[in-house]
Amino acid sequence: MYMNALAAALLAALLACAHPCARAQAPIVIKFSHVVAPDTPKGRAAERFRALAEQRTEGRVKVEVYPNSQLYRDREELEALQLGAVQMLAPSLAKFSPLGVKEFEAFDLPYIFPSKKALYAVLEGRIGRNLLRKLEPKGITGLAYWDNGFKIMSANKPLLEPRDFRGLRMRIQASKVLDAQMRALGAQPLALAFSETAPALRDGVVEGTENTPSNMFTQRMHESQAHLTVSNHGYLGYAVIVNKKFWDGLPRDIRSTLERAMVDATTYEKTIAQRTNDEALEAIRRSGKTTIHTLTPAQEAAWRRAMAPVYTQMEGRIGKDVVGAIRQEVAR
Fold first, then answer.
1. Fold annotation for 2-15+26-105+114-148+237-278
2. CB burial class (10 A; 0-12, 13-18, 19+) of residue 58?
3. Which residues form the signal peptide (predicted)?
4. What are the tens digits of pLDDT across the range 206-222?
């Protein structure tokens, strides 16, 4: 069913491009697909970009935003973008590894970013730009990085010491680094699509997960998780990407206008990301369904020691030069 739908969407896209003169007055349609809820940082920024793009192009561009995996799930959306069935995505950085760009998995390394300031120095500097350029041979143009924030852990028991993870089935994104992270803690990692995670937690397929507070709250994951630990052990961010052929084929003035709209939507996204997560964590606290724990300095030190081997295990996969460059940047 999925392949038939994808083939139909691709055929429609080809037909739409077949007679540009006959459709000169029709707006350029950008289908923007993502997997999270509209009221998350990514969802709200996608809507901001839609509004800015349509307003500033005076209706020459129409942006259709499809949240909550309405069109494609995690493993499907990148293929859909490369085929031209959708034009824009904002996948988490871990999702580029299956394309052969494993360097993005550096962002999954535990405790690699000591602060948002250090994180932004990497994303907005030479390292971040070089990583986006690596997507171009895959038919993808990177436009911006969007922030979600640092992750927390959840389960049906307190997760305070590394030994508390022993034997737990923990949902992760499809990332070799996250797999190694959970194994270092003694857990059993299971890679699931984001859209499958909340049902898997409710049904006991997995016993816990990691994510940002906004993603947990909007998907109501906390309702089946008795305990959350504010560990801030890992980062979750996104890259806003477009189909390169589509982007390069846009009229120059339209593309420039959309680039400026993306810059402004990105600035907006960064201003709301932390606040949205703080509000989500407070809403989880007020729900009374979940006990929230914060690691003590000694407990955090134990987590760091337990996960330190992940760096040596993954340097060969990610690239020692990439990991070294990030560590050098964040140490400034």
1. D-Maltodextrin-Binding Protein; domain 2 (3.40.190)
2. exposed
3. 1-24
4. 999 999 999 999 999 99
